[in-house]
Write a structure and sequence with these properties.
mainly alpha
Length: about 70
């Protein structure tokens, strides 16, 4: 149940948009989305980054990126 906010975020957009956008934002290799899919809006992505920080996933896995630091 602790990761429930991340699960909700992952289903907040058409698969795989939320996951790939978040992976890129934390510095993981994710590749590009195929057309017609588009990356998440900045506000939506910031919500995902806040969830990552709140759950401590950035520290647990050593993720760091400019987007993550700004969230």
């Amino acid at each position: 149940l602790g990761l429930l906010p991340m699960l909700h975020f992952s289903y907040s957009a058409i698969n795989p948009v939320a996951i790939k956008s978040l992976m890129k934002a934390v510095g993981l290799p994710a590749g590009e989305l195929r057309k017609p899919l588009r990356a998440l809006e900045a506000e939506h992505l910031q919500r995902g980054l806040r969830i990552v920080k709140e759950l401590g996933l950035d520290k647990k896995y050593g993720w760091s990126s400019a987007e993550l630091k700004a969230a």
